[in-house]
Amino acid sequence: MRQRMPPLSSLRAFEVVSRHESFRAAAEELHVTAAAVSQQVKALETHLGRKLLRRRSGGYSLTAEALAGLPHLRKGFEQLSSAVATMTSGAQRLLTVSAVPSLAAEWLVPRLHRFREQHPALDVLLHASEELVDFEHSHVDLGIRYGMGTYAGLVAERLFVDEIFPVYSPRMLKGRPLLKKPSDLLGQPLIHTDWAPEFGHWPGWTDWVRAAGLTGIDVTKGLRSSDGALVVQAAIRGQGVALGSKALVQEHLAAGRLIRPFKLSLVTDFAYYVVCAKSRADEPDLRAIRSWLLAESQRAPLGV
Predict the structure, then answer these.
(1) Rounded CA separation 219/23 (Å)
(2) CB–CB of 191/248 below 8 Å?
(3) What digits encode the pLDDT tens for the residues 96-138?
(4) CA-derived radius of gyration, the chain
């Protein structure tokens, strides 16, 4: 005879507590109170007639009975997740992705067709914004953030570290010789990304000129923009030499729209991170797009 099953909610509460070894951390993932999690686990212990947790300094440890059943329990939840994904696989599903506008325009949009080819049942709604999304109180599923990687309550995976270097369009020189050495920047118009982060350092022309050992270049003049994509577009249109972010210029370099004249680059304190709520990190659709984004970050530019 099939054994009477305990409530699924109590099994889920115990599985989450077993991973965190903390009622408080489990409560954060489940979006309930620690007291509610404790009650669920006690109800499960009462149903089974077995102790599953022992209090210890700084948290809880699992009993031998709990350790014996835990692998099967986790496998069961994985199979439930797969079953739900299978039942919804025939329906078109929508993922809302929030990304900084510059990366969305210059890196993400040119690649999205490859994601659709691999996952035809998934559509992407791209939300281009500089604002930090509250994943718990919005319809956004995934974010690509530019920062230093500290995002409380989120799973964060680094796409790539940002580095900058001079780029310009052949149109800028109008038939004159290409720039060959850093001193060739003398007399050339410069384009600046006008951004001063609250934390960390984002280098500008002053830093690059100093690193190159140059003197006599006025780094105070030139077109300025707070948006990296606009800086890149100004450079493509021949309006000057820009310090381009690698993530934003690599496609234009591969296509010949921009030229990188010098090897010297400066690594910033920042990187692009794929982020999502911890409570949703194991959802199949979110795993799919995160894996795809990480794989794309390792691929050659589209123009190569």
Answers:
(1) 55
(2) no
(3) 999 988 899 899 998 999 999 999 989 999 998 888 888 877 8
(4) 26
